[in-house]
TrEMBL record:
Cofactor dependence: [4Fe-4S] cluster
Residues reported to bind [4Fe-4S] cluster: C89, C93, C96
Keyword Metal-binding tagged: yes
GO biological process: glucose metabolic process
Highest taxon in the source lineage: Bacteria
UniProt keyword annotations, A-Z: 4Fe-4S, Carbohydrate metabolism, Glucose metabolism, Iron, Iron-sulfur, Metal-binding, S-adenosyl-L-methionine
InterPro entries, sorted: Aldolase_TIM, AmmeMemoSam_rS, Organic_radical-activating, Pyrv-formate_lyase-activ_prd, rSAM, rSAM_sf
Pfam families: Radical_SAM (PF04055)
Textual note on the cofactor: Binds 1 [4Fe-4S] cluster. The cluster is coordinated with 3 cysteines and an exchangeable S-adenosyl-L-methionine.
Presence of the UniProt keyword Iron in the record: yes
Domain Radical SAM core, chain residue ranges per copy: 74-289
PANTHER family (alphabetical): PYRUVATE FORMATE-LYASE 1-ACTIVATING ENZYME, PYRUVATE FORMATE-LYASE-ACTIVATING ENZYME
Protein known as: AmmeMemoRadiSam system radical SAM enzyme
Amino acid sequence: MDEPITDTWPARWWHVLDDGRIQCDLCPRDCRLHEGQRGACFVRGRKDDKMVLTTYGRSSGFCIDPIEKKPLNHFLPGSSVFSFGTAGCNLACKFCQNWDISKSRDMDRLMDAASPQEIARTAAEHGCRSVAFTYNDPVIFAEYAMDTADACHALGLETVAVTAGYIHPEPRREFFAKMDAANVDLKAFTEDFYFKLTGSHLAPVLDTLIYLKRETDVWVEITTLLIPGKNDSDAEIEALTKWVNRELGPDVPLHFSAFHPDYKLSDIPPTPAATLTRARDIALGNGLHYVYTGNVHDKAGGSTHCPGCGKLLIVRDWYDILDYRVTPEGTCSACGAAIAGRFDEYQGSFGQRRIPVHILRQHA
């Protein structure tokens, strides 16, 4: 927390406490800082009696991905998305799958520099339909993500946030006003799991999901990483899926993803494919219309059916789309039922490619 703060950008959402410390008001951690200290996320800190962001304009790398990798199955299916993240995280997940980025305390990992305008221009030049703030949680680099979102919208690009949803109401409102779609990690459905395995709390995440669904036009999908023995019981999956249906509605897509041993949970075995299938069956039984499996080869669990007539509409094999039968208006080609999501003229599948991109800086 006391590592010297060098490159900085003015941060928002903070106030001075009576004892002279500065409190960060971005997320429920409410970090209280003396001069020179960093918050738990490591990228927001206090310098010269102000809150600063140390990763503005700096990235851990840029890649073009399939939109299905975010994962988003109902947002411009088959399209490519320009993806990037920075470093740090405001959660402390012991099972983090991107821990080399999100848990990094080495600012030298941020080798690529780019302005919001350069990111938007490069994404457009590569034919991407959207830009995703991902790999680590964009909440902690909100100022950079929001400015980039403005630059993207100016060029007709959509924006995507891949986030744990751990954010206070005021910055949440401003941040998601800039986003067109979000995949929110609902990491479990017990406070005990959140507290012991992520160092955070469940309630703010549920609040974010309710806010997004009820008070915004952001397209929302949910991902739950199922960890053997931690959050994969029938009872917990029953409770989670019933809550989603009751509070968010049956049309919010839910992705159950497979855990693989990593970071501080390297002693737990990978999630069996049967666990994902069981979870999917429970969710469908509780009335959810669109439930998917991830991180495993499961064509059935990755495909989309019409909730009206049951017809198979989008056949996916990993990130490849093998068949597509949703109209540009977002309806079933067989029965005309509305399919929840954001659809337009299907232009083919970007597939399983992952294309690293280096941004060429423009100098005046």
